[in-house]
Amino acid sequence: MKPIHYLTIVGTLTAIARFGSFQREVGRQLESRYRISPTHTVATRTALPPSLNSDTARVDTAATEIRWKGTKFGKRGAHAGTLRVRSGWIDVRGMQPRSGRILLDMRSIAVTDIPRSDMVPRRKLLEHLVGEEFFAVSRFPTAEFTIDRAVDLGANVFRVNGRLTLRGVTKPVTFDMTLWSYEPTALRATAQLTFNRMDWGVAFRGSRLTNDLVDDDVQLEIDITARGSAS
Structural domain tally of the chain? Predict the structure, then answer.
């Protein structure tokens, strides 16, 4: 078999099993609808254990959206999908996020860029995502974000330092969160996080070529709605 034929076959098989692309802005110009006071305390706060009071709001799992994006062949190809939140809470005091925990339901991984009419490639991509080579959902049915501390950058934007637990591996992550609205009964925030999948062991086993065809970075776009007290 000629090399060009081999690479074509490898590329075709890999293409249906990869993350992909979507083009959306994380804030989606929400500021005109969800505006809060620009007054914040410019300080770094260390996360505290969940304080089950009026400042700790439960994540509304039905209203919260998580969209994933991954690319391949040096961003020349892509796939996209969604992920649901299983549970979570966020503690905001003095108009500043202090701590939080969001549990992701890895069993809810869905593919959105391949039409439902293309049943075979859609099914094969999903099988790869939930399988042992990627997220090993049968062994690790949940993933977790924690917010450890946040620094006020101004304009309702906070630099969040936290941790991501995926496939049983926990590593620090840093991302920006925009707090669009906050009051005792409702919270709205958006964030965009990019992480290197290889750091969490999300990779084909024993195949350098296959892993090289898929870009390392995975992007998560998060739109959080939290309501009421967690008490």
Answer: 1
**Residue span of the structural domain in which 199 resides:** 3-227
Flag whether the pTM goes above 0.70: no
What is the Cα–Cα distance from 151 to 209, expressed in whole angstroms? Answer: 40
Sort 135 into a burial class: Cβ within 10 Å, 0-12 / 13-18 / 19+. buried
Find the helix or strand (DSSP H, E) in which 81 lies: strand 77-93
Q: What is the CATH number of the domain that holds 202?
A: 2.40.128.110
Q: How far apart are CA 184 and CA 95, in angstroms?
A: 11
42-101 pLDDT tens trace? 333 333 334 455 578 899 999 999 999 877 656 666 788 999 999 999 998 877 888 999
> Cα(206)–Cα(25) distance, rounded to whole angstroms?
36
| Cα distance between residue 79 and residue 17, in whole Å | 9
d(CA 29, CA 15): 33
User: Using CA atoms, how far apart are residues 59 and 57, in angstroms rounded to an integer?
Assistant: 6
Taking the CA atoms of the chain, what radius of gyration do you get in angstroms? 19
pLDDT at residue 192, rounded to an integer: 93
Residue 77 in contact with residue 18, Cβ under 8 Å? yes
Query: What pLDDT shows up at residue 73?
Result: 55
Rounded to 5 degrees, what are φ and ψ at 19? Answer: -70, 165
